Description:
Blueprint: E1 3-4, H1 11-23, H2 26-38, E2 45-49, H3 54-65, E3 69-73, H4 82-90, E4 94-96, H5 103-117, E5 121-124, H6 128-135, H7 138-141, E6 146-149, H8 152-163, E7 171-173, H9 178-201, E8 209-213, H10 217-228, E9 232-236, H11 240-248, E10 252-253, H12 256-262, E11 265-268, H13 278-281, E12 289-292, H14 302-308, E13 311-316, E14 319-323, E15 329-333, H15 339-342, H16 349-371, E16 380-382, H17 385-399, H18 408-415
Parallel strand pairs: 1-4, 2-3, 2-5, 3-4, 5-6, 6-7, 7-16, 8-9, 8-11, 9-10, 11-12, 12-15
Antiparallel strand pairs: 13-14, 14-15
Helix pairs in contact: 1-3, 1-4, 2-3, 2-16, 3-16, 9-10, 9-16, 16-17
Amino acid sequence: MDGRFNRAADADAGRKKIEWARRHMPVLGAIAERFEREKPLAGERVSIALHLEAKTAVLALVLQAGGADVTISGSNPLSTQDDVAHALARAGVRVFARRGVSEDEYRALLLDNLEASRPTLLIDDGGDLVKLLHAERSDLAGGVKGGAEETTTGMTRLRALAREGRLAFPMVAVNDARMKHLFDNRYGTGQSVIDGILRTTNLTLAGKTFVVVGYGWCGKGVALRARGMGANVVVTEIDPVKAIEAHMEGYRVMPMAEAAAVGDLFVTVTGGYHAIGAAHFLRMKDGAILANAGHFDVEIDLEALRRMSVEVDAVRPNVTAYRQPDGRTLYVLAEGRLVNLAGADGHPAEIMDMTFALQALSLEWLAREHRAGRPLPPALHPVPEAIDRTVAEMKLRTLGIAIDRPTPEQEAYAARWA
Length: 418
């Protein structure tokens, strides 16, 4: 059990969390049974940077069952659950993660992960491992056969590397698979963000004006669930197509400067930088609540808010009050980090079952292609359609749902241009 984790945490409690998640992840369970028999990852060293909680632990153990030597870190300073990390270390996974670390400690833990693993495969969440392998540990990049990325933020960073011709190894765009963005981003984020807000604030959403900043797949999910809880939803966007889509769904659409004056609760889901800034804070109501559901804590300009405030006070767990010179108080949840993971348990297990199945099968594909003498070139690669369909079919089987198949005549008709 080498690594850096909180040894004082209750490993037995963490094990129970992992078992609960495992029970509700049947697709990953079926993959684990096959991996245990076939050992498709034998000899591989897998570095993981994911939100280190129970569902992630199940994925790490599935890869371990497939023969991989697994090393894991958190992908956010506030999303690691120490009891789960301790339980995972007991199970033989090298763990470099603790909850509540500083930015410098967080980076050091990722570097320790890479040094201990010297990875042949990796799973990233937000692109931090990839960044370090290109910026500070490029000596290890040559040994990486490939990896997988599951966030919009991470994909933005990977595309920038690819555009510059600097991507050193192949990366699979798990984030863009249909079985990921249609379910994880929409239904997973939608439910888990609302869960994080409610657990953190203990307030009602019904009747409040709920501003969703960004209407991508995650924003769609948050808006849908907020409306379901009785909130009056406002959407802000920079993409005209998404803005029209939000309008057609029945949401009010307006610029952030206007939304700032009417919102009771704001959630940023853009993956961008300073979507809410100083000019917006000046227009907000007394008591307005701000939360972030994007990967990094840069979507709300907290430095500007601190400078503008006469007092900053932690008023309850994961709630910070910023008192303004004019007497107003604005509240920020979970230090502007991912509210669904810093303030709750993240996406439901049934949702992550599908996303993590894509991760496991993508790593198996990368390893198999490399062993067969067909290594993928350094580039961004889509998840193969066969993997996407396999996960969908496995999920349907676990739900007891059957679907139709096209007849030979129907397939022939669809194939004819005339």
